[in-house]
Amino acid sequence: MRALGWAGLGVWLCMTPLPMAMAANAGGLAVNAEEASINAVDPHIAALEARVKAIRKNKNALQSSIAAGRKATFFCANCHGVDGNSPFREVPTLAGQNAFYLLTQIQKFADGRRQSSAFMQGLVKVLSDTDKINISLYFASQAVRPAVVAHTAQWQTGASLFSQRCVQCHRTTAMGDERIPRLAGQHPEYLVLSLSRYRAHNGQRMDPLMQAVTSSLTNAQIQDIALYLSSKN
Ligand code: HEC
Ligand code: HEC
Q1: Pocket lining: 38 vs ligand 2, CB cutoff 6 Å
Q2: Which of the 8 DSSP states describes residue 227?
Q3: Spatial CA neighbour of 40 closest among 209, 211, 167, 213
Q4: Residue 7 lies in a domain
């Protein structure tokens, strides 16, 4: 996979089949209503979260889960980095990401509620529930390496937009919480891609909260917020 490089990966990502994305949109209200509440978790994810909570209560269980997660991510490391800090600007850093958010996204790729990457959708199908738990705990335990960015006017605009429109869910620290993603230290290119996908309502990322929040953002505002977030520790 490493030999394929970013160019090869780009080809993979461009192959997301359009009819699938359109079918997802046709799901309409039923899907939106189900996803409208942050706390509405489907039973399968709730069961995975319960297992994570139990593991966290026991220091030894947590250590062995993280160690197993490190082994299980040998293939993921080609794109997301060994410690979860991705070397590719459009591949998300997973280091320091919240474990329940990671579990949920893996599950959304698997069941088609997230269609932003045909490659990821196929890949997660081979993971067992235990793999998903170990991988999420491993990446969550790793430290993010934020970008070093000058505090320009663009950065300031990003900071104030973020504090006006995003902190009630992602927190002033941009660390989110269990089910809300950490944004601090994420690659700006990936953040721009994700925000644009929610705004586009193109079936790739279907969270109704984020679709609503991004609907009024301009391209320039998305760039400003992404720059600001990439520099946060
Ligand atoms: C060929 C490169 C590649 C490999 C290998 C890969 N990923 Fe990914 N992954 C991506 C890309 C690109 C995205 C972003 C998709 C998007 O833009 O929505 C992604 C997204 C994700 C996300 C969503 C992160 C977020 O912030 O929402 C998770 C979780 C994830 N990958 C987990 C894994 C795991 C676990 C493995 C190994 C089993 C893995 N990936 C292997 C390229 C890869
Ligand atoms: C009402 C709560 C809420 C608000 C306000 C909110 N978010 Fe979110 N955000 C979420 C949730 C929940 C998710 C996970 C959605 C999913 O599963 O796709 C998310 C996901 C994201 C992601 C995807 C992260 C990734 O790793 O792919 C980005 C980027 C993001 N939000 C940025 C923002 C920005 C920037 C703002 C302000 C302009 C904002 N959010 C405001 C709740 C919120």
Answers
A1: yes
A2: H
A3: 209
A4: no
Specify if 1 maps to a domain.
Answer: no
What's the CA-to-centroid distance between 63 and ligand 2, angstroms? Answer: 30
Pocket of ligand 1 (CB under 6 A): 1, 9, 13, 73, 75-76, 78-80, 91-92, 94, 102, 105-106, 116-117, 119-120, 123, 135, 181, 193
Residue 16's Cβ-side half-sphere holds a number of Cα atoms within 13 Å equal to 23
Tens of pLDDT, residue by residue over 21-57, are: 333 333 333 333 334 445 568 899 999 999 999 999 9
Digit-coded pLDDT (tens) for 187-229: 999 999 999 999 999 999 999 999 999 999 999 999 999 999 9
Note whether residue 205 is domain-resident: yes
Atom of ligand 2 nearest to the CA of 191: 29
The tally of domains found in the chain comes to 1
Give the mean model confidence (pLDDT) for residues 98-127: 97
Q: Kindly report the protein residue whose alpha carbon is nearest to atom 42 of ligand 2.
A: 169
Exposed/middle/buried for residue 208 (C-beta within 10 Å: 0-12, 13-18, 19+): middle
Of ligand 2's atoms, which has the minimum distance to the CA of residue 206? Answer: 18
Domain that holds residue 98: 12-230
Ligand 1 centre to CA of 153 (Å) is 32
Please give the backbone phi and psi of residue 87, each rounded to the nearest 5 degrees, phi first: -80, -10
The pTM assigned to this predicted structure is 0.88
CATH, residue 71 = 1.10.760.10
> Does some domain include residue 75?
yes
